[in-house]
Design goal:
This protein is mostly helical. It has 2 helices and no strands. α1 packs antiparallel against α2. The longest helix has about 35 residues. The chain is elongated, with a radius of gyration of 15 Å.
């Protein structure tokens, strides 16, 4: 499996993780638990952006070759 294919799968995993944490945050009745899941969702969003940047950089490198 190509690294680009793997990164695309990871990208989907990060997106799904963020969505899951947001759903859990909505289900929480106490502020502390809600805040924890919201923070985890933001972390997954950051991971998503980082992976997307890596994919873009890899594609650009491959175009130059």
């Amino acid at each position: 499996m190509d690294v680009l294919e793997i990164l695309k799968e990871v990208l989907e995993d990060e997106k799904a993780g963020a969505e899951r944490y947001r759903k859990l945050a909505e289900e929480m009745t106490d502020a502390e638990s809600k805040a924890v899941f919201e923070a985890l969702a933001r972390e997954e969003d950051n991971h998503y952006r980082l992976v997307r940047e890596r994919i873009t950089a890899l594609k650009l490198r491959r175009q130059k070759c």
